[in-house]
Specification:
InterPro entries: aa-tRNA-synth_II, aa-tRNA-synth_II/BPL/LPL, Fdx_antiC-bd, Fdx_antiC-bd_sf, Phe-tRNA-synth_IIc_mito, Phenylalanyl-tRNA_Synthase. The protein is α+β, with helices and mostly antiparallel strands. The chain contains 13 helices and 17 strands. The structure holds adenosine-5'-[phenylalaninyl-phosphate] and magnesium ion.
Length: 440
């Protein structure tokens, strides 16, 4: 479901939600201000004021912030790599998708999944969006940390902005390059043998995770092995000793086959923590057309992309992903650059839930991500989660009714019932304006 054009066209970056709605009609021609620049809007525009306000923050570069310390830890594990962390989040759909061989009908391209400034400019949905550009600059071993944006549901482990570190290594596709990889594999294997880490592996190649036509399977095996050894040793560097990775209770890492349009073979890595397998990264042997796009056809190599919040929540025992955005001194003062310490929760304030139940206009649907963005525009980080609790289609009229339960809870103070009511009333009023729903 798309937001109707006239209301959605004039989003102003700095306006608070109520002001921005009021300003909408007055602002012509249609534009949006993002990171100090004005852009024309069009039928694809769906970037919201809440999201625009996050763009300058760059938590991964804020001294003492847990995400900045984690970035530092990862970078220190790859000292000979180029470290990048200041690339603009604005990319073209061509960079984010086409250069990485995403099919034209991939769901990630849709306005319900990604944020668009207009049809030609979007917020990167992953750090892989910069692969071709960085390889094209001649970098062969590099890490890139950045904020990434995806339209998503609202709960304790999902936030529409999160952070990823991309890592990549390419070598010459000849005997010199392969020798370099073989030597590195020996060094890394020896290092890992001495450590307590339990690794559940999958074959480097299989019929469901095949070698690329352009590659010699022996080369692919060596590259995939180098990728796995490099990442297993990173896991050890990050987790060992911190989550009880001892001889009696070793760190458990599990490799799984995966699929990404720009890598083959591809894998995901999960780490066992507090009784659960936690997916922390995706990776693979880079698809040769990706390297061709960067004018480095004579190379081959691997790339990975890991989620910083997922790892930081584990390492610091941070229970809610919204906390990373907190400006509360009770949160920020707990951390020092370079140190991993256990987060001490301050009191959890009471939650207050409100149900919003409505009929959609005939023939209209409402995507959950559109509803969640609307709620975030009104309530910001005061919304803890949003759940669809009823979805009903009238058998005779075919009209659809939805009921969402919104859980309001501030992380820094007690929220009064009046405040929650007033936020909820605003949600209801936006729903009426933007989607012409009939409140039940
Ligand atoms: C990717 O984003 C690929 N770009 C990774 C990649 C890079 C593959 C290079 C191959 C080569 P994925 O969507 O699975 O893949 O996300 C990667 C990691 O980001 C996940 O494993 C997870 O740790 C983190 N992540 C993904 N979605 C979220 C989210 N909504 N909130 C927090 N972390 C997330
Ligand atoms: Mg994944």
């Amino acid at each position: 479901m798309r937001l109707s054009g006239s209301l959605w066209r004039n989003i102003h970056a700095r306006g608070v939600p109520s002001r921005y709605l009021a300003n909408m009609a007055a602002q012509r021609p249609c534009h949006v201000t993002v990171l100090g620049e004005q852009y024309l809007t069009d039928h694809m525009t769906n970037i919201s004021p809440t999201i625009v306000s996050k763009l300058p923050l760059k938590l991964h570069t804020q001294p003492s912030h847990p995400l900045s310390t984690l970035r530092g830890l990862i970078e220190s594990h790859f000292p000979s790599y180029t470290h990048l962390s200041s690339l603009s989040p604005l990319v073209t759909p061509y960079q984010n998708f086409d250069l990485l061989s995403f099919p034209k009908d991939h769901p990630g391209r849709s306005v319900t999944d990604s944020y668009y400034v207009n049809k030609d400019l979007m917020l990167r949905t992953h750090t892989s969006a910069h692969e071709v550009e960085v390889f094209g600059r001649g970098e062969t071993k590099w890490l890139l940390t950045a904020d990434v944006y995806r339209r998503d549901e609202i709960d304790g482990s999902h936030y529409p902005v999160f952070h990823q570190t991309e890592g990549a290594r390419i070598v010459s596709a000849n005997s010199t390059g392969m020798k370099e990889i073989e030597e590195d594999n020996e060094r890394l294997a020896a290092h890992l043998e001495q450590s307590s880490i339990e690794i559940e592996d999958v074959p480097h190649l299989s019929s469901t995770n095949p070698c690329q036509p352009a590659h010699d399977p022996k080369h692919t095996e060596l590259i995939a092995k180098n990728l796995k050894l490099s990442l297993n040793s990173l896991m050890l560097h990050l987790f060992a000793g911190r989550v009880g990775a001892t001889a009696q209770n070793p760190l458990k890492v599990r490799w799984i086959e995966a699929t990404f349009p720009w890598t083959t073979p591809s894998f995901e890595v999960e780490v066992f923590f507090r009784g659960k397998w936690l997916e922390i990264l995706g990776c693979g042997v880079i698809y040769q057309p990706t390297l061709d796009n960067a004018n480095v056809s004579n190379k081959l190599g691997w790339a990975f992309g890991l989620g910083l919040e997922r790892i930081a929540m584990v390492l610091y025992s941070i229970p809610d992903i919204r906390l990373f955005w907190s400006q509360d001194p009770r949160f920020l003062s707990q951390f020092k650059q370079g140190e991993i310490t256990t987060f001490k929760p301050y009191s959890k304030y009471p939650a207050c839930f409100k149900d919003v139940s409505f009929w959609l206009p005939e023939g209209q649907t409402l995507h959950e991500n559109d509803f969640c963005d609307l709620v975030r525009d009104v309530a910001g980080d005061v919304v803890e989660d949003v759940k669809l609790i009823d979805d009903f289609t009238h058998p005779k009229t075919n009209r659809k009714s939805l009921c969402y339960r919104i859980n309001y809870r501030s992380m820094d103070r007690s929220l009064s019932n009046d405040e929650a009511n007033s936020l909820n009333a605003q949600v209801v009023s936006y729903l009426r304006d933007r989607f012409r729903v009939e409140i039940r």
